[in-house]
Write a structure and sequence with these properties.
The complex is a heterodimer.
Chain A (H helix, E strand, L loop, with lengths): L9 E3 L5 E5 L1 H19 L35 H6 L8 H30 L3 E5 L1 H21 L6 H6 L8 H19 L3
Antiparallel strand pairs in A: 1-2, 2-3
Helix pairs in contact in A: 1-3, 3-4, 4-6
Chain B lengths: L25 E6 L6 H12 L3 H14 L1 E7 L1 H14 L3 E5 L2
Antiparallel strand pairs in B: 1-2, 1-3
Classes of the chains: A mainly alpha, B alpha+beta.
Chain lengths: ~190, ~100
Amino acid sequence: LSRRHGDERIRRERGGDVTVAFEPAEAVIVRAAFADLLALLDERSGPAETAAPDVVPGVPDPFLTLGATGSAQPPEDPALARLLPDAYQDDPDASADFRRFTEPDLVAGKRANIRTVLETLGEGGRIRLDEPALRAWLHALNDLRLALGSRLEVEEGYEEVLAAMEPGDPRLPGFALYEWLTGLQDALVQTRL
Amino acid sequence: MVDMSVAPAEVEKPETFSEVLPDVPWVTIVWNDPVNLMSYVTYVFQDYFGYSKKKATKLMLDVHNAGRAVVSAGTREEMERDVGAMHGYGLWATLQKDT
């Protein structure tokens, strides 16, 4: 876990809403980042044909045709695997069952949070977030940081690695976005503590 | 620098005979990871479990310092619900029989 400090772009308004100021360029960057995250989640939103081997060869598992189950296998992409982790540490069968029956809803919830972010963000400016919208922002920002952190191979104490990077390091733009998102998320969380 | 993203492997495997005992308690464990914010994890524990700020902060620090913490206990079904909720928040959580 890491620790951050406050942010002046955020105001608590009367009535409990929170307003957040975004420069138009920031809004463009945030939209693009969340579009990438939606595309990543799309990899798990498809049909579940590969969910499990047929119990009777050639006869599809009838539960899979109900449309309510997803894949039984964890995602191969590390970023996706971090967003959709196994529920059991040492029990792949229990993890697979849990995943089949819960992952579609988990993915749908994450997608809904991102949609709320994109709708409330618009073109930027000072946007107003009520309680449900703020909750969606907190969750979606966390998912975005998890995916980005996985791509950047963020580890405990990564700040030292970042501080030692050469100016031309190809990872720097990604880390700049990551750091900016971290500051934004922390400032939003502080309004709930 | 320690990479806490790899979970320790010494967690004991549940024993098979207790599968049939309905009242064996299960626990939800939240694992440390290098991305989640201390503030956010505290917020999640308050928001979902309804824990006081003090208790939520203590659990967050347990996760941060020890690498993992038991955050709730109950039936297997209840713990599956809690783990699913933690995944919704983006926390890295698993359930297991209490040992």
